Amino acid sequence: MQVRPLTWLTLSFFGYYCAYGVFLPLFPAWLKTQSYSEESIGLLLACGYIFRFSGSILFSGLIKRVSLLVNGLRYLAVASAVTMALIGLISHNFWLLFIGLALYSMVNAAGMPIGDSLASTWQQQIHLDYGKVRLIGSFAFVVGVMVFGYLAGIIGEQYITWMITGILIFYSIVQLLHPNPMPQDEPQSAVENSIGFLGLLKNKTTLRLFIAIALIQGSHAAYYSYSTIFWTSHGHSVSDAGLFWGISVLVEIVVFFFSTRLFKNWSITVLFYLTGIAAIVRWLAFGYADTFVEIVLLQCFHSLTYVAGHYATVRYITTQPQNHIAKLQGLYNALAGCAAIAIFTALSGVLYPISPVYAFSLMAAFAFIGLFITPRGVKAFLPHRV
Prior knowledge:
The protein is about 75% helix and about 0% strand. The chain is mainly α. It folds into 2 domains: about 1-180, Growth Hormone, Chain: A; about 195-375, MFS general substrate transporter like domains (Growth Hormone, Chain: A, Up-down Bundle). It has a two-stranded parallel ribbon with strand order 1-2. The model has no long low-confidence stretch (mean pLDDT about 85).
């Protein structure tokens, strides 16, 4: 069955991010039901980020032509479903679970940059609106965390891995649809793309932008790991915590929807300054916000601390040579979404038991450094429709 690229990407993003919306906040709770200690859970999650980094680099590097992106996503979707099912079957043994989680993290993580690469390619070729497609992913994340979080509360948290497996099976099935038109290789990209990741980073603008966004997005590490614990320690329920997460993503959806209209005339440099300053304010205030209203207001900052920076980075990547896009997306996801998060999670884990304020203040410091590394005068405007 043939569908439009917009429809195909919408279904693909929905399946991927719905599963991720269950995995990110609820997988630690599933590990707890398997009688693993907090130390073991922390080790598994930290190592998971390292393997996500490896997977993003490895599989993105295997994509030599944009015409291979669709099939690449199909294989990764099936591999994600199979490995998550294995995790549910081998959870009784720590080392088998470790291996299963490593495999899942690698194949699942690669779906994010390759999906964004496909969106960026269609943005170049058919003027697909990336912001409107990506908001479907944000909406799916809300569905995952709220709907399946509620379901887990009814039938039991021990079934979380099977919920994720079911969503990933749906994700695999919708990938079998045929988008028309398919992404087309440019003449120079039809030959094997020989440039490596280090070669891409020899571009000083790319290097500085990627370091800056890694620092700014990596500063979310303490939030991802300890926000629910922090809120519940201040008297809020777990359902309140789920609501706070949901609010941040709902605001994210709104900004993604209007991102092209809002930011199309903003330079990349200015967008990086915006996201960096917002991150500094958010993390400095986070450790002191304990009332419902204060928390909700800070959660609305997610539209700036994440969305603005992500939009800017994807837009920059979209303006690069077509045969560089897949590797640039993989590099971006590996550095900002995996490596920086893994390192900063470990650092915040040392400071949080001493004082949550120290942990979140350290995150603000990383965002502050990111501001100074951001190169000046980077515009990277998208070409207008003709």
